[in-house]
Amino acid sequence: MKQDMSASIKKALENQNLAGILDRWNYPAMRAKAFEGIDFEELRGKIASIKGDAAGRLDELADTFKKNAEANGIKVFRANSAEAARQYIADLCKEKGVKKIVKSKSMATEEIGLNHFLDEFGIKSDETDLGEWICQLAHQTPSHMVMPALHLTKEEISDLFAKETQQPLDNDIQKLVKVARGAIREKFFEADMGISGANIAIAETGTIVTCTNEGNARLSTSLPKIHLALVGLEKLVPNYTDAAPILAALPRNATSQLITSYVQFISAPTKNDDGSMKEVHIVLMDNNRTKMAADPKFKEALQCIRCAACLNVCPVYRLVTGHVFGDIYTGGIGTILTAWFNELKSAEDIQALCIGCDKCNQVCPGKIDISGLILELRHRAANKEGLPFIYKSSLQVINNRKVFHTMLRAASVLQKPFVKDGFIRHLPMFLSGLSEFRSLPSIAPKPFRDIFKTIKQPKCEEKAVFFAGCAIDFVYPKTGEAIVKILNKAGIEVLFPEEQSCCGIPHWASGSFDMAAEAAEHNIAPLLEGDPTYVVVSCGSCTTALKKEWTKILKEQNKEALIPQAQKVAERTYMFTELVDKLIKEKRLTPKEGLELHTLTYHDSCHAKRQVGIYKEPREALSATGFEIKEMTECDTCCGMGGSYTVKQPEISMQMLKQKMKHIEETGAEFVTAECPGCLLQIAGGLDKIGSKIKAVHPAELMVDKFQ
Amino acid sequence: MFENFKARAETSGNTEVKRFETTAQALGFIEEFLAKEEIKEEVGSYAVWAKSPILEAFDNNAMAEKFPGLHFEVTRELAKGAKIGITQLKWGLAETGSMAQDSTDVEQRLASALSWIHVAILPTTKIIADIPAFMTKMHPKDIKFITLITGASKTADIERVLAIGVHGPERLVIVCVDDLELEGVAS
Fold first, then answer.
1. If DSSP codes are grouped into helix, strand and coil, which group holds residue A449?
2. Is A169 on the interface with B (CB under 8 A)?
3. Among the four residues A110, A320, A445, B156, which has the most C-beta atoms within 10 Å?
4. Could you tell me the residue ranges of all domains in chain B?
5. Is residue B185 very low, low, confident or very high in pLDDT (cuts 50, 70, 90)?
6. In Å, how far is A357's CA from the nearest CA of chain B?
7. Of A245, A265, A290, which residue is a domain's last?
């Protein structure tokens, strides 16, 4: 990561205006209310299908649009590049003698830096969307795609307005809005041209659709005698009725409204109020969109309807804003769009900010696998430029089981001077950043693989292979012991194949898909030894690897021969609490009677919740064994661990953990649990640092003595 | 349908919905409203009334005489100085409390977008379910410019705090009239 990126992260983290504003908004609850009575999955299925189909024939739809709009009297220009779009608009302005422009919100004009370009020809563009105008006055780019100035406080905005209008102003938001109205109103009347974007472009009728709340798009398309719309090709849909599902999802997702105040369908020039005919120009811009559509992976990103829901739910975006996470187009989808549309080559740094928690994918109305595409960007960057040497070596070491395990054993000895009560609270010098905000767990003196040999198990007909994952094996062997004990009670004998090693998730998350496939290769055969009924995993991330990623990654790396075996592993894989819940329901495990009641709060690991959809089962198993669950706020928001993310982005990781600590503390529960040793490591370390009374314990250890 | 429309519209931002059985009653309300809002021949206090089928139902000149400042021709300057803009809408959408406007004639846009208060006349019988229903009634192949209007002009661009009346009306008064048909007054 470049130095300036690190500096901008630090700067952003010092200013938490936007995070505070988004927290007060309570977007998840407001959004849910807006979607009451609507089947979101069905709706986004429709949108994905309409936009996916359109993305497959952009050129054809652009031709149809042009033909129909021109038949209605609109002039349509197809611009292949940002340069061509800018030049066309500048030439048009010169030809028509345009000196003043009013603009309603358009991301596409931001994309091509239009204002700045026109400025060089002495043409003045005034933004009229309140947020855009604020950004223009502040000489800043938007920090949010829908609400551009959300990073600024009313005090800062008041100062900007006072300077612009040369009058003293107080900080009352209602009054500030009226000041803006007064200051901008005259500009609509004076402008020679109004520029808008479009939310949708309908090919069959040559119509552009704009959605606004403030009414500025109405005025900028009605008062000046020329209206120009800059429209990205991805806005095209074939038919009029295709606009309906987009209009249903966009406002609900963007601002938790049922509909924006104004939705305009403009299909032809109309008369001005002096009786003359308005000129309407539409620039249909490609700027790498057809190239994107031709990429089998990234084509789906064209299904985006720019609602910015992926920003609102992103735990990283909330902390650092779009000024760090994105460039013009911001947040998760912004990272992808920036990589394709932006002439600045900044996306490679930006992609590293995604922690891969997948919250964005759940709310995306275009059904885009946003985090997966960011990972694909990472993968392509890693392929092109290679991973940093130290990082790549460490991933290679992880893949070499013997070397990795020998190193871990050595570390268990070397760490001794820093260990107290199983935690490392301070590390010397350059490593100190890692233990600054949370204590680190120590490597266990004896790994689970050694302990396992000493465990006496009853002989049972039914076998389960235990896939421990690195953390349980070397850091939390007690968890492994608890798992064996509980499964034995259900009449299941546990096997532990020695050849097992890292599941490959760290490689996968770094974009090193080849090494991730190697990790799968190492593990598959050992896990099927002895033909077990179950493969038991007690980590959300490892579960994701075994249940989902191995078959995908093997296919992608052209190792098809292994896929049937990988599928077999996937079918037999259970996350531990998922299996316990099943065994309780099958009455093969019976909780003891008269169990003392305890309280706990459950943190959902990102992978468990959103990759493999396991969140009910652990709660039911824990409730059945005497734990009253006190849900924390945002129980499924990432704790900031994210595997190696915490090492690569320590400042962001720390802020996320702080937030998580606050939510855990608020519950007042005795325990916090999560079925992911990574989350537990992060949370337990954070609780230790703040001296909390709440203990972070793995579910297996909580339940170990609870069964008859 | 009307009740749903009213409920949605009245939660869409500084919007009131009134309902009258007859056109005469609705006109009575509008006169009272013009008086109450102190419409006069003064910039900032005009009322503009864009071409509407309902205008056929009464003597426009008589009303203009009664309310100096009320204009039945809508220019950009008059609309700019208008406190009230009156237009008649085509359809009401119950699901969102929206109204559909045929905006082809710029008068309709000026009167409903530039004034402080938009008085929207809507035949009660023209309230339909939702956007898909609206799409079967108004099509861009027939109508050059269509607008869906929902609530007053609003923003949350400063600190996510709702503020009403940014570039458009800060108040929307919807006057539903039971005996008014789409293309004119019921016989």
1. helix
2. no
3. A320
4. 2-179
5. very low
6. 25
7. A290
Q: For chain A, how are helix, strand and coil distributed in percent, rounded to 5?
A: 55, 15, 30
Exposed, middle or buried: residue A377 (CB in 10 Å: 0-12, 13-18, 19+)? Answer: buried
Residue whose tokens read 């027939």: B142
Distance linking the first and last C-alpha atoms of chain A: 53
Assigned token pair, A218 = 């109405």
Residue A426 has pLDDT above 80, yes or no: no
Give dist(CA B169, CA B14) in Å, integer. Answer: 10
Residue B16, CA distances (Å) to A72, B27, B96, B99 in order: 37, 16, 14, 13
Residue A685 inside a domain? The answer is: yes
In a domain, A127, yes or no: yes
What is the DSSP-derived secondary structure letter of residue B84?
Answer: E
Q: Write down how long chain A is.
A: 708
Whether chain B has a CB inside 8 Å of the CB on A180: the answer is yes
Q: A147 touching B, CB under 8 A?
A: yes
This prediction's pTM: 0.91
Q: Does domain B2-179 have CATH number 3.10.129.10?
A: no
Instruction: Specify the pLDDT at position A387.
Output: 61
Please say if the pLDDT value at position A17 is more than 90.
no
What CATH number should be reported for the domain holding residue A224?
3.40.50.10420
Q: Do B159 and A173 touch (CB under 8 A)?
A: yes
Q: Find residues 434-493 of chain A whose CB sits inside 8 Å of chain B.
A: none
Of A150, A178, A222, the CB nearest to B106: A222
* Full domain range(s) for residue A22: 3-290
Residues of B in contact with A215 (CB under 8 A): 113, 153, 166-169
Residues 6+ apart with CB under 8 A from A32: none
B 96-125 → A contacts, CB under 8 A: 96-98, 103-107, 109-110, 113-114
**Domain annotation covers residue A627:** yes
Does B148 contact A at CB distance below 8 Å?
yes
Of the partner residues A240, A264, A273, the one whose CB lies closest to the CB of residue B75: A273
Phi, psi of A649 (to 5 degrees): -125, 65
Q: What residues in A contact B103, CB-CB < 8 Å? A: 264, 270
CA-based R_g, chain A, Å: 28
> What is the tally of structural domains in chain A?
2
- On average, the pLDDT of chain A sits at 92
Element (H, E) at A600: strand A598-602
pLDDT of residue A647: 81
Q: Is A259 on the interface with B (CB under 8 A)?
A: yes
Q: Which residues of B touch A134 (CB under 8 A)?
A: 157-158
- Cross-chain residue pair B106–A24, CB shorter than 8 Å: no
A175, A222, A239, A274: which to substitute to probe chain B, counting the most B Cβ within 10 Å? A222
The pLDDT score that the predictor gives to residue B186 is 37
- CA nearest to A210 within chain B: B147
Burial class (CB in 10 A: 0-12, 13-18, 19+), A290: middle
Q: What is the mean pLDDT of residues A162-182?
A: 94
Are B166 and A189 in contact (CB < 8 Å)?
no
Residue burial B167-180, b: 16+ Cβ < 10 Å; e: rest: bbbbbbbbbbbbbb
In a domain, A137, yes or no: yes
Rounded CA gap, A209 and A221, in Å? 12
Which of residues 60 through 89 in chain B touch A, CB cutoff 8 A?
A: 74-76, 80
DSSP letter assigned to residue B154 = E
The per-residue pLDDT for A343 is 53
Residue B168 Cα distances to A185, A190, B74, B85, B149, angstroms: 10, 17, 16, 11, 11
Give the closest-approach CA distance of A216 to chain B in angstroms.
6
* Contact across the interface for B154 and A261, Cβ inside 8 Å: yes
